[in-house]
Amino acid sequence: MGVTILAIESSCDDTSAAVVRDACVLSNLIAGQEVHRSYGGVVPELASRAHQVNIVPVVDQALKKAGTDIDEISAVAFTRGPGLLGSLLVGASFAKGFALARKIPLIEVNHLQAHVLVHFIKKKEEEVTVPEFPFLCLLVSGGHTGIMLLKSHLEMETLGGTIDDAAGEAFDKCGKLMGLPYPAGPEIDRLAMQGDKNAFRFSRPSVPGLNFSFSGLKTSFLYFLRDRLKEDPGFIAENKADLCASLQNTIVEILVEKLVTASLETGIREIGIAGGVSANSGLRNRVLEEARERKWNIFIPDSGLTTDNAAMIGITGYYKYLGRKFATQDIAPQARL
After folding, report:
1. Which domain range does residue 43 map to?
2. What is the pTM for the complete model shown?
3. Fewer CB atoms < 10 Å away: N or C end of the chain?
4. CATH number, domain containing residue 48
């Protein structure tokens, strides 16, 4: 029958459940929370309450869509962190109760590791090429930005991370300054396709090593708009596409420059990107260009697997199951890992 993992993801504002069997995803359902749009960002208390409402029906539908009976579940995996503590508690509590009631193993998963391991998901009855080890991955999302080195499925090292804000946060905060809805990243990407990426220049941080910083870029963008609006109150409306294209190009260049450096320093050419911002078309195109020039074996996830989802928790849980790395019932979620 194989190893069948029920996976739960509840680190932020999406309640997700998936069924993964022998590294193949049988179902992957996500319930979003529209309530946060009117606040311009995720409200933790509202998020945790919505998870409580969503988690049972989402799990039920995931099992039905997978055609999996509850008795076939080998183990239940859940996101331990990092994330919003209230949201994590809902997923962890459900997973603990499910595992205890069914007398099956409980598996805790690091959300960041799961984003990277999405590249190892297989498709039923379809040949899929997966990375070889060692493997470098640029993880870039709303809350996290870093370069990860994988030596095996369960051995991951952070070569560099953000010292302040994540790239996804820079997209969202700068988008808010332009009056774009939350989350602003997808809208910036859409508008950037219509604009000139060289129209404007913004501050780029000088950070040693493989670390990132985006707080200076946000400040530079804020002051730039403030000064231009003094001269022309209609500046944003008249230049929105060029602003988006220039902002996106700046962020992409910062990200890819560090990824290239990491590849040169380690000699690794198995390269991937992951996380919500990896769905950005500008980043994808630029990485593909570098891959052709530098002869990388490049891995870019399907767009549906870039944002928070339980399939990535399930694939990580699968490899932890094979390694017999189980958690105990007294394990607690952690906002920071």
Report:
1. 4-128+306-322
2. 0.93
3. N
4. 3.30.420.40
